[in-house]
Amino acid sequence: MVWPGIVLIFIFHYIPMYGILTAFKDYNILKGFAASPWVGFKHFEAFFSSPDFGRVMRNTIVIALLKLLVGFPAPIVLALMLSEVRHGLFKRIVQSVTYLPYFLSWVIVSGIVISVLSVDNGTVNMVLQGAGLADEPINFLSVPEYFWAILISSNVWKDVGFGSIVFLAAIAGIDPHLYEAAEMDGAGKLKQAFLITLPSIMPVVVIFLILAIGNLLNAGFEDILLLAKNPLLWRVSDVLDTYVYRIGIENMRYSFATAIGLFKAVVSVLLLAIANQLARRSGNSLW
């Protein structure tokens, strides 16, 4: 039963890896892959010496860290809160409402965000003006200072419900006698959460944290591309993936794009290995 999966992974993930060599060639679509000349580390040097390098790396790291610091604990907190809900119908409704946005594509989600923040009849501007907090509508998606908050908030809203399911399943597997014993000792709900629930699900939390750190340079693509259409936002929104799309793909600099992708992949593997090594000290690791 495993063999079909292994064959598919080999065909679609390992065989195409010869394309990595494009990063070390000056690829010309007319000459073809074989006839394109070797240039060594030319494209890596071009990226590292580019004036855009510092800005792109800063945006990538900051946005990724914000998503990690805000987005990673959010489903854990939601799972802890839902685990304490005893009204079955209310619990199912909350789960459905928080879980539904995960199935919406970023095209739909970005459309909702743009509509809510719109200058013309946008809900946020109407509320701010109605409450007397703003004299005139604010064009939120044209102000760089607001972009990171908008991006992180929309990501949390979209993914928090799906992420909480895994942690709810882990919480459901905790021995209920532990809570009964803690309650007899006078521990309240908050102490039970910190002394029983969190330590019990810590192996799952650590595994997901390792994977999140390994994906640290995946700061986003679709969400940023759709929400940061205004060039005024590029100085705070341009990350590795969007930079590759704009400079490498749209300008047909395929070797340059491949070099950046390879650099990102190597750094991601190193981050994953370091995170796994550090997690091993706690007794939980991927390998």
UniProtKB/TrEMBL annotation:
Q: Where is the ABC transmembrane type-1 domain?
A: 57-275
Please tell me where this protein is predominantly located: membrane
Q: Which InterPro entries match?
A: MetI-like, MetI-like_sf, UgpAE/MalFG_permease
Q: Does the keyword Membrane apply?
A: yes
Lineage: superkingdom: Bacteria
Entry keywords, A to Z? Cell membrane, Membrane, Transmembrane, Transmembrane helix, Transport
One of the Pfam families matching this protein, by short name: BPD_transp_1
Q: Which GO terms describe its biological process?
A: transmembrane transport
UniProt-recorded name of the protein: Sugar ABC transporter permease
Kindly list the organism's lineage.
Bacteria, Bacillati, Bacillota, Bacilli, Bacillales
